[in-house]
Structures are given as structure tokens and as C-alpha cells.
Amino acid sequence: MNAPIYVTPPPVVPLPEAQPPQAGVVPQLLRQLIGLQQQQNNLLKTMVAQHDSGTRWRNFLTRWGEEFPNIGPACKRAAPVLERAYLSLLRELTDRVNAADADDLENEFALGEFLDRFGMRLGQLSNILGQVGPLADATPAPAPPPDPEEQG
């Protein structure tokens, strides 16, 4: 079943003649464009501020600062220790997987032992880092001690 295909040129549509711009219209349109761009910039700044989780955590620490005054610095000190423990566990896990035969984890008993050893601990450490990390990041760096030469 072959049917002929006819291709025709597109119809010629006459374009309207361009009218010369009236005096004052172009500057007015440009001012409107600038105003719209400023509104769009303000909306984008607001949207970025709403999605900034650091601001949310800083507000959280400020809100509870009187009742828990040292929680931010404590999280900042604990985060590297937790990260190191997490990475050590990941290294142990990857060494175990890379050193084992491909069939080792297909065995029901070996897979259960592997999950018991790494699954829960890795998930829990990841969860703890997910809670402590943002608080540590939101905590401002401690102010440097005053220079003794400047005081004396």
C-alpha cells in the first residue's frame, strides 16, 4: 500500500508594515521591564531564603539558645568524630564486599550475617549524622581569642 505524497510550498503570508515607534513608548516599556525584573529578583531571593536549610537550623539554635546554650558547639565538636566512625564503617563494609567472592552474599546465612553486622549500624550512624551535621554547620565558628599584644 503505497500512496503518493504531495509536498506543497507554504502559503505566502504578507507581513504587516512596521509602524515607527511613538516617542516615549520605548522608554516606558523598558521601565516596565526593569520593574518586572526587580519583582522577579525579589521573588527569587525569597524562594532561595525559604529553601536555605542553614537559616532554618540557625533560627532553631537561636530559639532554643537559652535553654540549651552549648548544643551548637557540642554538635560542632561531635560531628567530625561521628563522620570518622561512619567512614570507618563504610571502609570496613566495602573492604568486606570487595574481598569476598561474588557468591558470598547470595548465601542466605552470609547475607543475614552481613546485614546484621553493617546494615543497622550504618543506617543509624547515617541518621545521627543527618541530625547532628546541620546543627554543626549552622553553629557559627567561635570568635578568636583577643590578641594579647593588642591589649597590652
What would a concise description of this structure say?
With 152 residues, the protein is mostly helical. The protein has a domain at 53-138. It contains five helices and no strands.
Notes on the protein architecture:
With 152 residues, the protein is mostly helical. The protein has a domain at 53-138. Helices cover 66% and strands 0% of the residues. α2 (53-63) crosses α4 and α3 (71-99) runs antiparallel to α4 (108-138).
Q: Give me the Rg, rounded.
A: 32 Å
Strand content: under 5%
Quaternary state of the chains = single chain
Separation of the first and last Cα atoms? 101 Å
Uncertain runs are: none
Brief descriptors of the model:
66% helix, 152 residues, mainly alpha
List the helices and strands and how they pair.
Blueprint: H1 25-50, H2 53-63, H3 71-99, H4 108-138, H5 148-151
Helix pairs in contact: 2-4, 3-4
